[in-house]
Design goal:
The complex is a heterodimer of chains A (341) and B (269).
Chain A: E1 3-14, E2 17-28, E3 32-36, H1 43-50, E4 58-63, E5 66-67, H2 72-76, E6 79-82, H3 94-104, H4 109-122, H5 138-150, E7 156-160, H6 168-183, E8 187-192, H7 195-201, E9 204-209, E10 212-217, H8 219-225, E11 229-235, H9 241-249, E12 257-259, E13 264-269, H10 272-285, E14 290-296, H11 300-307, H12 329-332
Parallel strand pairs in A: 3-8, 3-9, 6-7, 7-8
Antiparallel strand pairs in A: 1-2, 1-4, 4-5, 9-10, 11-13, 11-14, 12-13
Helix pairs in contact in A: 3-4, 4-5
Chain B: H1 2-10, H2 15-35, H3 37-58, H4 69-86, H5 88-99, H6 101-106, H7 114-140, H8 149-177, H9 180-196, H10 212-217, H11 219-232, H12 237-268
Chain lengths: 341, 269
């Protein structure tokens, strides 16, 4: 199988922030790879390097057989990029936007007209093709952005959070469309924050966090890694969290996750009721009052949260190290240490 | 590594293709202008207002050699109209950098220089339009051409050349600020400083001695003096050559700076 995207120990710093700390990646021709990670994990930085918008500080990357640093022109003529911020001109019509892109691909007049009309048709924008984009809804803009990325008929397509902020129906339509493209032979690398999206579209999933690959496999393999149950203990007194965490850790099932907001400690486990009983006895003998103690099946989102080490934490609250707007935010906006209760 | 970087050089886009790409970008920018006429008209109204204010409010109080203030002032307003209209380069570039559309352009197999070239070309078209309007109004409020048609054309050509060179200063400002609001505020500064510390509004002889050499030899003054000479049928020769030299110098220096900044923008955002 031919590799259409390859990255080797790719690294990128923004000042003090390591956006990418040595990423390895491979996508085979005609397959889909989903890059899954929370905000600031480095997904967008990685896509920007692979699409030649950003130079890496270290490592190597090849797209469609061409080095992104040494031969960016060759890479650009073989890729399509659609981002989370629709890169279309609001003051042009949908058709004009696509014909401009065709013009910049050096296509002749008849050919760029034909391709623009075809792309508008495929993305159900024909009815709005002569309206200015500023009158489009968010979903329509995103579709037009995707249409623009297809004008050059690229063998490799990069979609950076293609459905973030879209309503469920628009999201489903977009998924169907993208799945068709891949079925027709396009190689796709997409980034997403949604486990569901990765599972639906991707042949392989790479989970990244803080610039590193933390898991890699098919959706089924990732779920198997997390197979088993989740033992969850909610303490009555916040001050007992540390002791509860120590007890859970001593059960020999792995490292527990502490969520101070919910006052709970959770632990992936395969031990079933025996572990539940053992935990109950320890809490009881240590005189830790509990509001709740139980075993439940992990959700897909919990798999993701557990992998990215942020169980129970809001994804949105993380600094966006991978984007320029987040530069230095970790240094300047550090939260004060939580006061002790 | 050696082999692949030499093949990258061979992949370089030819100048013909670069010009074609720039034309595509310029056409897109002009379409935006037609659909957002408010922004462009403000830039055109400014010099007209300044022309009328100086002509009718201050004109009576300012004495110039030769006596006719309209003939003295209006060539300066031609230069100023050109420079003010060109400010849209800073604004438009900052808007594009902010909007994400530049990412689309940069991911396409097009010439890297096309975004800057296309921007300065589309804005040159707008500026020439503004200049034509101001020339028309200037004639309406009492300006008279006292020279041959060829000399008048040469004068207009000097103004346009200076305006195009200046648009690369604006491009630099747009690339540095990355923000339409600050771009607009900063872009207006060089024009106003150059216009007031110059022979544009009052003769340089009336300024303090230490300021006179600066005011006399800076590009706004020499271009204005050359235009006056050409339009009044007088001698323009030293000023015209100085103006051409200034325009060429500004163009080369700020073209290099702007292209460098654009490249750097690529690798940092």
């Amino acid at each position: 199988m031919e590799l259409m995207v390859e990255a080797e120990v790719l690294a990128k710093r923004f000042g003090p922030i390591r956006a990418l700390a040595g990423i390895d990646l491979a996508v085979q021709r005609g397959t889909t790879l989903a890059l899954l990670g929370p905000n600031g994990a480095g997904k967008t930085t990685l896509v920007r390097i692979l699409t030649t918008l950003l130079r890496p500080d270290g490592g190597r990357a090849r797209v469609a057989g061409h080095d992104v640093v040494a031969d960016p022109g060759a890479v650009r003529s073989r890729i399509g990029l659609a981002g989370q911020y629709a890169a279309v001109d609001e003051l042009l019509t949908g058709r004009e936007n696509l014909e401009l892109v065709g013009f910049l691909y050096q296509l002749g007049k008849a050919e760029r007209r034909r391709r623009a009309a075809e792309a508008l048709e495929r993305l159900s924008l024909s009815g709005a093709c002569d309206r200015l984009v500023k009158t489009y809804s968010g979903g329509m803009r995103r579709r037009l952005d995707l249409a623009a990325s297809l004008i050059g008929r690229p063998p490799v397509l990069f979609l950076d959070e293609p459905t973030t902020g879209l309503d469920p129906r628009t999201r489903n339509d977009l998924w169907d469309f993208v799945a068709e493209l891949v079925a027709a032979g396009t190689t796709l690398l997409l980034t997403t924050q949604y486990m569901e999206e990765a599972e639906r579209l991707a042949d392989r999933i790479v989970v990244i966090d803080t610039g590193r690959v933390i898991a890699d496999g098919t959706a089924a393999e990732l779920k198997d890694r997390m197979a088993g149950d989740m033992l969850v203990a909610r303490v009555a007194d916040r001050a007992d969290l540390d002791r509860a965490s120590a007890i859970m850790a001593s059960l020999g099932e792995g490292a527990p996750h502490v969520d101070p907001d919910l006052q709970q400690v959770s632990l992936p486990t395969r031990g079933g009721t025996e572990v539940l009983i053992a935990a109950g006895q320890r809490f009881s003998s240590d005189h830790i009052a509990l509001d709740d103690l139980g075993i439940r099946r992990p959700s897909l989102d919990e798999v993701f949260l557990s992998l990215t080490g942020n169980a129970g934490r809001s994804l949105a609250a993380r600094p966006q190290a991978g984007t320029p707007s987040g530069l230095g935010r970790e240094d300047t906006c550090k939260l004060p240490a939580a006061p002790r209760a | 590594m050696q082999a692949s970087s030499s093949s990258a050089r061979m992949m370089r886009i030819s100048p013909m293709v670069a010009m074609r790409d720039a034309a595509g970008i310029a056409k897109r920018n002009l379409l935006r202008t037609i659909r957002l006429p408010g922004e462009a008209s403000v830039l055109i109204i400014q010099p007209v207002v300044i022309l009328l204010l100086f002509r009718y409010v201050l004109g009576g109080a300012i004495k110039v050699p030769g006596g006719n203030y309209a003939d003295y002032l209006i060539p300066a307003v031609f230069v100023e109209a050109m420079l003010l209209a060109g400010m849209s380069t800073a604004l438009g570039l900052a808007q594009d950098l902010n909007s994400g559309i530049i990412d689309r352009f940069r991911s396409l197999p097009m010439a890297r220089s096309a975004v800057l070239l296309g921007r300065t070309i589309s804005d040159l078209v707008r500026s020439v339009f503004a200049l034509a309007l101001v020339v028309g109004i200037g004639v309406a409020v009492g300006f008279q051409f006292h020279s041959s048609f060829a000399a008048a054309l040469a004068a207009i050509a000097l103004v346009i050349a200076f305006g195009y060179a200046f648009s690369w200063i604006y491009a630099t400002i747009g690339l540095i600020t990355h923000n339409p609001e600050s771009a607009q505020v900063i872009a207006v500064l060089p024009v106003f400083i150059l216009m007031f510390i110059s022979s544009a509004i009052v003769p340089v002889d009336t300024m303090p001695g230490w300021l006179q050499p600066v005011a006399r030899d800076q590009p706004f003054s020499v271009t204005t003096d050359a235009v006056r000479g050409l339009l009044q049928g007088g001698s323009a020769s030293p000023s015209a050559w100085q103006s051409i030299a200034w325009s060429a110098g500004i163009l080369v220096v700020f073209f290099i700076i702007a292209v460098r900044l654009y490249r750097k923008t690529n690798s940092h955002s």
